[in-house]
Amino acid sequence: xxxxxxxxxxxxxxxxxxxxxxxxxxxxxxxxxxxxxxxxxxxxxxxxxxxxxxxxxxxxxxxxxxxxxxxxxxxxxxxxxxxxxxxxxxxxxxxxxxxxxxxxxxxxxxxxxxxxxxxxxxxxxxxxxxxxxx
Length: 134
Description:
By secondary structure, the protein is of the alpha+beta class. It has two domains: about 1-35, Double Stranded RNA Binding Domain; about 35-70 and about 80-134, no CATH class. The chain has helices at about 25-35, 50-70, 85-95, 115-125; strands spanning about 10, 20, 100-105, 110. A two-stranded antiparallel sheet has the order 1-2. The chain has a two-stranded antiparallel ribbon with strand order 3-4. β1 and β2 form a beta hairpin. The longest helix has 18 residues, at about 50-70. It is elongated, with a radius of gyration of 20 Å. The model has no long low-confidence stretch (mean pLDDT about 85).
């Protein structure tokens, strides 16, 4: 009778039926097999977001972005922002955007906007067409 060594795989992929022995293996799998994932497996547990909360958040976000933007010729080009959002609010605001991504292994969301069209889309989302102008 042969004895097999059973290796535990405590890191499941929530998007398919695979499991991995390390978090880095799971992350590598997600990057290869689910590179542009938009599925948030636990979205049904998000709470309702009222329009009042969204309105307040939009104003706070735009004010913060305005304070971080620099308008000097040496700082033109790509601007990268990280902002802490309540998870359900981020999902509500950005789910339908082309640049929306979710990485389940690290529970991180991303939403990338590029160029003039990205600038305009942020203005639509935040209901302020001239955001970021000084």
